[in-house]
Amino acid sequence: MHAISRAGATGPLQFMYQTGLRFGLGRVDGFDTRYDPQLSARANVAYLQERLAELDGDLELALAAYNGGEGRVGRLYRAHPGKRFWDPEIYSQLPSETQEYVPMVLAAAWLFLHADEYGLELGPVDTRPGSVLLVRDATLNELAICIGSAGAREGWFRVLRNLNARYQTGDVIPAGSEFAVPRQLEPVYYSQCVDEGRATLARTLVSARAPAAAQTAAASAARTHTVGRGDTLASIARRYNCGGTTALARANGISGPGFVIRPGQRIQLVGCSG
């Protein structure tokens, strides 16, 4: 949900900032709604509908436009009327990533729609949305610890973060706030995270700090980070607790809004405590 590409495409559906604005995504009270799963999904549907209308219902070209740029695909479509994505006149002029992306998306959709024919088992997923009214102040980290695994082997941290994208993991969410959870977790929250006990333990664990000597050693060893494949400035800032992407970008002279970094680049971890 918090992904940012090297080109600056942001959120679960990877909208560039200006494209997001066209479809109702932008900043609301300082929050970039490209991170919002519901709003970005609706914007994505509207975007694909616009591409399908522009490209005479050609699904492959619409997907190519989504990945490789609507301008590029639109020009190819107009220059080669009646040609499809697979025709050499169009296919050969698309980026290699787009050439691979379109058949991969189509294959994934086909397997999902015909799972039984291919011996695939897509286990049941409870997608019912729910929410709770927080009875006490809590951070997202505290809520994830308090709720625990509750039927999910790897816990619920990522799900809770994705459903509440406007909160950073350490933000204190005040009592009385509506907090989105899967419907099945509503009773878990009220049984485990309201009274003293587990909720207090969660707060204690989150607020725990390593001894000063260990903190100093960790800080000394983590003064720089070499960018690896798939790294974004946001993921590095979260990993090393750098106080946000903007602060880390400013310290390294990296301009926004895309904060583009490249593999092999060394990032100075100024002001980072992790």
Q: Can you give a write-up of this model?
A:
This is Transglycosylase SLT domain-containing protein. It comes from Alkalisalibacterium limincola. This protein is mainly α and 274 residues long. It folds into three domains: 17-118, no CATH class; 129-207, no CATH class; 212-268, LysM domain (Membrane-bound Lytic Murein Transglycosylase D, Chain A, Roll). Helix content is 45%, strand content 7%. It is built from 13 helices and six strands. It has helices spanning 17-22, 37-54, 59-68, 70-79, 88-91, 96-113, 140-147, 157-163, 186-192, 198-207, 212-221, 233-239, 245-252, and strands at residues 27-28, 31-32, 129-133, 178-182, 224-226, 266-268. It has a two-stranded antiparallel sheet with strand order 1-2. A two-stranded antiparallel ribbon has the order 3-4. A hairpin with a 2-residue loop joins strand 1 (27-28) and strand 2. Helix 3 (59-68) crosses helix 6 and helix 7 crosses helix 10 (198-207).
Secondary structure elements and pairings:
Blueprint: H1 17-22, E1 27-28, E2 31-32, H2 37-54, H3 59-68, H4 70-79, H5 88-91, H6 96-113, E3 129-133, H7 140-147, H8 157-163, E4 178-182, H9 186-192, H10 198-207, H11 212-221, E5 224-226, H12 233-239, H13 245-252, E6 266-268
Antiparallel strand pairs: 1-2, 3-4, 5-6
Helix pairs in contact: 2-3, 3-4, 3-6, 7-10
Family: Belongs to the transglycosylase Slt family.
Domain LysM: 223-269
Protein name: Transglycosylase SLT domain-containing protein
List descriptors:
274 residues, mainly alpha, Membrane-bound Lytic Murein Transglycosylase D, Chain A, 3 domains, two-stranded antiparallel ribbon, 6 strands, LysM_dom_sf, Lysozyme-like_dom_sf, Transglycosylase SLT domain-containing protein, Transglycosylase_SLT_dom_1
